[in-house]
Each structure stands twice: as C-alpha cells, then as structure tokens.
C-alpha cells in the first residue's frame, strides 16, 4: 500500500496573541508545529502500513524550515519525506496549493492520500478535496473511523452534522480526517534516530512539471485584501451584589428586553 | 515582488516583523526584508510607522485572468437538504443572496438536489427567483461526485457571478471540488459578505488563525466568486407567501459517483443537542466541575426551553459528549441567549459563540476573557447562581 500524508507546518494558533495597539498578530515566540489534524492523518497512514504493508510518504509544500516538520513525521514512523519548496510557490491560495500538491503526488502515485480536516492557520478545509479533484480521484471528508480496508476497497465513517455516514469506495482515494479517528503516537527512539539521518527529497516547480500560470501568487484566484482584528462587543454590563441579588437582577434585565 | 521595503526609510524597528502573520519578514543588515513567504496581506504596510513598506505593483496585474468576467451575472445559492427537507442554512443563504443580488441588479438562483417541488416553492417564497431542481431519489443522500458534477454543469450554463453554499460538512466537502474544476477561488467559512461599491467584486470576510484575526478575501479575476458561509451568522430574508418564481427541472443523466453511502446514522444523545436551532444555550466549561455541574445546567436549559453546550475542556473531561461542543473544533452557534457558565473564553471557544445575540457570562474569575464578549457579566459561583436562575424562571413561568 502506497500512502501519502500531506502535512503542513503552522504556527501554534493557541499561543498567538494580538497586539492591542496595532491590532495585528504577535508571532514572536510562537512555536511552529505540525498542524494538529495532520497528526491524526499520519497516525492513520502508519496504522494501515502496519496492517497491510507498504510505505508512508509525508509531503509538504512550504519554506525550507518546513523540513523540521517532515523530520518530526519520520520520527513518528513515516518512511520517506518530500519537501516542495520554490520561490515560485509563494503566495499560493488553496487552489494553487492543491494544484502543486497534486502535481507532486502524480510523480509518486499513491493508493491512499491522507490530509488533516483543516489547517489551523487558514482553517479552510479545502486543500484535501481540491487536491483530489486535481488528481481525478474521489475523496471522503471528515473521516472518524476506518471500518474496513483491503487492497482495493475502503469503508469509513464520515462525520456529518447530525451523526455519521458509512461510505465505501475503491482505491485510490483521498481522505481528510478528524480527531476522533485515533490517538497519534509519540516519536520512538528508533524513529528519532531515523529522523536525524533521513534524506529529505526536495522538489521545485521544474521537478513536478508545474505550469507557471497555476502556481504561487500568479496561479491563485483569491487574494487577501486586508487583515484586521475581530471586533469585540462594546456594551457590557457587570451585575454586582450577592448571588441572590445577581440572579434577580439578571432575570429583571432579561424580562425588560422580553427574553423570558 | 509587489510589496517591498524602502531601505532608505526603514529604521529597523521590527514592528512589521512581529506583525506578519506569515513569518515572511526577516532582518538583513538592520533593515526589514520581505521574503518569498509573503502572502501579500499588506498588514506590514499598515503597521510600519515610517511608511517604508510600499506596494510596487497591483497584485492583479501579476495574475492570469479570465476574459469574459462580464458574462457572469447572477447569484446562485446551493440549497442543502437533509432527508428531503431544506436545511435552515439554506434560508440564511437566500437572505444574504437576495441582498447581494439586489445590489448587483441580478437574479437570485437556487440549486436544490434530492427534494421535491414543494420544497423548491419554499425557496422561492424565501427570496429565490429561479430554482434548479433535480428531484432524483439518488440525490437525497449526499455524494461528493454527483453533487459536484451537477453543480458544475449548472454553473457552466448559467454563469453566475457569485456562488454560495453553507459551511457545513456537505458544503465544505464538495464545493472545493467544484472550485478546483472551474479554476476559480473559494473562500471558506465566511462570516460577512458585501459588494464592493466601486469594483462590484464580492468582499468576503472570514476568521483565520483560530479566530485571532479576520481577513477580507477577494476573487477579482476569476468567476464565479465562490464562498461557503458559516451557518447561523446570516439572517434569513423575509418570507413572502405570494412570491412567484420559476422551477426548472434538471436531469441527471450520465452522472456517476465513485463513492457510495451505505447508511446514514443519526446520533442524538439523551437530551436533544440541536445547538444550531436552539434559541437558548446554557453552556458549561471546566468550571462546571463534573456531571453534577452539568445536571444544574441541564435543569436551567430545560426551564428555558433550550439546550446544553460545552467547552472543549468539559468534553475532554468526559462530562458531556462531543456533539455538545461549541467552538473552533465544535459547532458554531448563534442563539438568542448564550449563558456561559465556568468557561474562561479561549478564542477557540469564542469563535463558535460570539455572534450570539446576548451573551451571559458566569465566572468566578473577574479577569476571565469571556467577560470581554459578554452582554451581561456575573462574577460569582455557578453552583449558587445557576440553581437560583432556574428557580426564578420556574416561578415566572408558573412551572
Ligand atoms: C486547535 C484547537 C482547537 C480548539 N477548539 C476548541 C473548541 O472548539 N471549543 C472550545 O471550547 N475549546 C477549544 N479549544 C480549547 C480552548 O483553547 C480552551 O482550552 C478551552 O475552551 C477551555 O475550556 P474552559 O473555558 O471550559 O476551561 P478553563 O479555561 O479551565 O476555564 C474554566 C473557567 O471556569 C471558571 N470557574 C471555575 N469554577 C467556577 C465556578 N464554581 N463558578 C464559576 N466559574 C468557575 C474559572 O474561573 C475559569 O475561567 C481548542 C484548542 C485548540 C488548540
Ligand atoms: N502547504 C501544504 N503542504 C502539505 N499539505 C497541506 C498544505 N496545506 C494544506 N495541506 C493539507 O490540507 C489539509 C487542509 O488544509 P487547509 O485547506 O489549508 O485547511 C491540511 O490538514 C493538510 O493535510
């Protein structure tokens, strides 16, 4: 089984603070991590390999420092790692990112491609399905359980608003995963050794035969117009007094505005 | 590089460095330098105290574009259904879609799969001018391939300028395929949509970086401009019993799907957890301290006719099931009243509930960030206050 896991290096958004004066992000000291959802994707890939044999390749498009994320993935049990890095990829939106990832995946071929449900920086959840479209293969989003997998068949549970669907398909397929799927393992000692020594395959636009018009800023249909801080509701009323007084005052307020 | 630092003006203060969301600015010989990871968001331009960062060339000039943008006119809404019944998010999309269409002087089209004519008529009463309907029973269950194929076909024929879908598991799964195929932009999970007065382009606002910032996204050079819209943030339009419109039946010949839904399973826990529909949500966090605390919240929810929500901390502790979770990795809610009990107010929680009409925060700690978004704040112990609220409401309602 040939498995590719797409991972992205992201800032740990739970540590990001906003500079109240400029209303902009403060990135200083915010660590870069593997997108948390991609760890579930990686774990799923490794588990399938352990069951059916084959290999797991981790793939990322990003700056040279994204190599750290790939090495971390190897320490968890990935066999090979590919870094797509090229100045020409800069400014990619989800369309151009997916095109680029798909061009690379076509070079290797895969039976299953795993993505995280979404990346915590962009939160779009679009790269997975768009990549599947560029590859011309089906995808299933929000996988929370793999019920059965064989060489040419997979049946999974897909999370929906009010429950889940049981979905089946042939391979190849692209799956995006949610956190209920598994518990990602910790890096092993052997894995850490392997990560140090591993050779990271680097590819640019020429190696993946990308069309100039489809990559980076030039290939991206969307553009960011501006970024601003979310507005916080201004009018706030603090209700003081003993617990009983507070409860009564709140009820009075709600009755005044006819909410109860 | 269209965004550059004017070395003569740069004082090396590093303000831009720390504010770049993409880590794309580095210091070189005491001056700021923008590298290839620039996403052209222009944050640095706005924060530079010296005015030393400038845009050298309009980004649009660098891009490829389609030539027939003028041919794309109307607004198309994907009306999602569940078991043949139009889902509430679809009516919200018609509300905002109607507004955008009127501003553009265009028609509002709706696209409905796997439901019957009576449902299509409802869409018209809620504001649609024309409904494309494919009432094939195969389509009642959601399938990425068939949904993407039919929608792509309708878009290619009708050339709408704007396409909207709900940012639900369904919309977020198959709409990206359509955008990829049409070679156009797609903006995820929008919370506000407006038409730019001058260019007539769609201004799409969405949260990013875990809700820490908002970004306005444009798709100026390709059509249609596609967006998924977060449920419960747009208001429904007005319902008009007498509104008329067209229903066009479309056929689904030659449409095949490579994935197959074998079964759909509904999961509803003991009490109903329809967080999306609820007018009152009583939510608990780590401060609720266990199942006993949640019992109190449930009682309050019951007398209010509402449901119970939870922070991720409470779900992780196992006090309540995941289907109750509100926030970035849970549900987005927009009730009339959200009562947050023992919830600190981490951004990941706030993004899921801050558009509620009224937010009541009950927390022991006066410094808790939840008070920043609260309409009414009570510094106090939920174990005392919640039962009192329940008792008072019971009295008022004569229960
Ligand atoms: C990628 C990512 C995604 C996430 N997604 C979500 C999400 O979807 N939803 C979500 O909620 N979180 C999410 N989180 C977690 C989030 O960062 C917080 O950890 C979480 O919301 C905290 O929950 P809490 O407020 O219940 O707990 P705490 O932060 O521990 O706060 C408990 C509060 O209760 C108060 N309290 C204690 N006892 C009492 C009492 N007797 N009466 C009154 N007040 C009391 C305390 O003062 C405190 O403010 C996410 C985190 C990450 C990294
Ligand atoms: N630059 C990237 N390189 C590799 N994988 C990516 C990249 N961007 C996104 N992905 C994958 O696509 C998923 C969804 O990302 P997004 O659409 O950005 O929310 C992530 O969880 C990753 O698996």
Which terms would index this structure?
heterodimer, A: 260 residues, alpha/beta, Rossmann fold, nine-stranded mixed beta sheet, 7 helices, 15 strands, 31% strand, globular, B: 399 residues, Alpha-Beta Plaits, seven-stranded parallel beta sheet, 22 strands, 26% strand, binds flavin-adenine dinucleotide, binds adenosine monophosphate
Task: Characterize the structure shown.
The complex is a heterodimer of chains A (260) and B (399). Chain A has a nine-stranded mixed sheet with strand order 11-10-9-12-8-1-6-7-13, sandwiched between helices. In chain A, strands 2-5 form a two-stranded antiparallel ribbon. Chain A contains seven helices and 15 strands. Chain A is 30% helix and 31% strand. Chain A is of the alpha/beta class. Chain A has one domain (2-214): HUPs (Rossmann fold, 3-Layer(aba) Sandwich). Chain A has helices at 36-52, 67-76, 94-108, 127-135, 189-197, 216-219, 243-256; strands at 2-6, 9-11, 17-19, 24-26, 32-34, 55-61, 80-84, 112-116, 139-150, 153-160, 163-170, 173-177, 200-203, 223-228, 237-239. Chain B is an alpha/beta fold. Chain B folds into three domains: 3-55, Alpha-Beta Plaits, CATH 3.30.70; 69-249, Rossmann fold (3-Layer(aba) Sandwich), CATH 3.40.50; 280-397, Rossmann fold (3-Layer(aba) Sandwich), CATH 3.40.50. Chain B is 28% helix and 26% strand. Chain B is built from eleven helices and 22 strands. In chain B, strands 11-15-10-5-8-9-16 form a seven-stranded parallel sheet, sandwiched between helices. In chain B, strands 19-18-20-21-22 form a five-stranded parallel sheet. Chain B is flat. The model of chain B has no long low-confidence stretch (mean pLDDT 91). At the A-B interface, strand 3, strand 4, helix 3, helix 4 and strand 9 of A face helix 1, helix 2, helix 3, helix 6 and helix 7 of B.
């Amino acid at each position: 089984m040939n498995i590719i896991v797409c991972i992205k290096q992201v800032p740990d958004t739970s540590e990001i603070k906003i500079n109240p004066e400029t209303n902009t992000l403060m990135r200083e000291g915010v660590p870069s991590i593997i997108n948390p959802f991609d760890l579930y994707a990686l774990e799923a890939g490794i588990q399938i390999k352990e069951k059916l044999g084959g290999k797991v390749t981790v793939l990322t498009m990003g700056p040279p420092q994204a190599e750290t994320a790939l090495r971390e993935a190897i320490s968890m049990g990935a066999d090979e790692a590919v870094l797509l890095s090229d100045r020409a990829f800069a400014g990619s939106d989800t369309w151009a990112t997916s095109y680029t990832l798909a061009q690379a995946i076509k070079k290797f071929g895969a039976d299953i491609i795993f993505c995280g449900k979404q990346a915590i920086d962009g939160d779009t959840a679009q790269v997975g399905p768009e990549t599947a479209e560029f590859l011309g293969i089906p995808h299933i989003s929000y996988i929370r359980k793999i019920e059965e997998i064989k060489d040419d068949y997979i049946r999974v549970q897909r999370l929906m608003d009010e429950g889940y669907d049981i979905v089946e398909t042939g391979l190849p397929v692209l799956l995006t995963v949610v956190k209920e799927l598994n518990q990602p393992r910790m890096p092993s000692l052997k894995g850490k050794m392997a990560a140090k020594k591993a050779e990271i395959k680097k590819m640019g636009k020429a190696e993946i035969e990308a069309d100039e018009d489809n990559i980076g800023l030039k290939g991206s249909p969307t553009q960011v117009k501006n970024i601003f801080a979310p507005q916080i509701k201004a009018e706030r009323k603090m209700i003081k007094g003993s617990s009983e007084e507070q409860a009564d005052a709140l009820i009075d307020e709600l009755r005044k505005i006819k909410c109860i | 590089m269209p965004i550059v630092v004017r070395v003569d003006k740069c004082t090396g203060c590093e303000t831009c460095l720390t504010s770049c969301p993409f880590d794309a600015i580095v210091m070189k010989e005491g001056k700021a330098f923008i590298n290839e990871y620039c996403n052209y968001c222009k944050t640095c331009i706005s924060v530079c105290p010296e005015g030393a960062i400038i845009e050298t060339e309009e980004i649009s000039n660098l891009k490829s574009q389609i030539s027939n943008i003028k041919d794309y006119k109307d607004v198309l809404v994907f009306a999602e259904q569940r078991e043949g019944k139009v889902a509430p998010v679809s009516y919200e999309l018609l509300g905002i879609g109607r507004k955008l269409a009127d501003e553009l002087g265009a028609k509002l089209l709706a696209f409905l799969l796997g439901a019957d004519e009576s449902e299509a008529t409802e869409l018209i009463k809620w504001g649609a001018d024309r409904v494309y309907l494919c009432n094939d029973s195969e389509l009642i269950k959601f399938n990425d391939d068939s949904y993407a194929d039919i929608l792509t076909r309708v878009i290619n024929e009708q050339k709408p300028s704007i396409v909207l879908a709900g940012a639900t598991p369904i919309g977020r799964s198959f709409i990206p395929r359509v955008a990829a195929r049409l070679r156009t932009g797609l903006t995820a999970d929008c919370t506000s949509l407006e038409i730019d007065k001058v260019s007539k382009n769609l201004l799409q606002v969405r949260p990013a970086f875990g809700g820490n910032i908002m970004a306005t996204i444009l798709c100026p050079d390709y059509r249609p401009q596609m967006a998924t819209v977060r449920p419960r943030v747009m208001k429904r339009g007005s319902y008009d019993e007498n509104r008329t419109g067209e229903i066009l039946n479309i056929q689904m010949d030659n449409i095949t799907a490579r994935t197959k839904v074998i079964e759909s399973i509904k999961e509803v826990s003991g009490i109903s957890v329809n967080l999306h529909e609820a007018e009152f949500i009583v939510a608990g966090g780590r401060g609720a301290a266990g199942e006993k605390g949640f019992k109190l919240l449930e009682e309050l929810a019951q007398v209010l006719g509402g449901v119970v929500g939870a922070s991720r901390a409470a779900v992780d502790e196992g006090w309540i099931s995941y289907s109750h979770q509100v926030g970035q990795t849970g549900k987005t809610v927009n009730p009339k009243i959200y009562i947050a009990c023992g919830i600190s107010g981490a951004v990941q929680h706030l993004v899921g509930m801050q558009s509620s009409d009224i937010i009541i925060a009950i927390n022991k700690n006066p410094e808790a960030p939840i008070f920043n978004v609260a309409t009414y704040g009570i510094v106090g112990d939920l174990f005392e206050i919640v039962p009192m609220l329940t008792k008072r409401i019971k009295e008022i309602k004569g229960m």
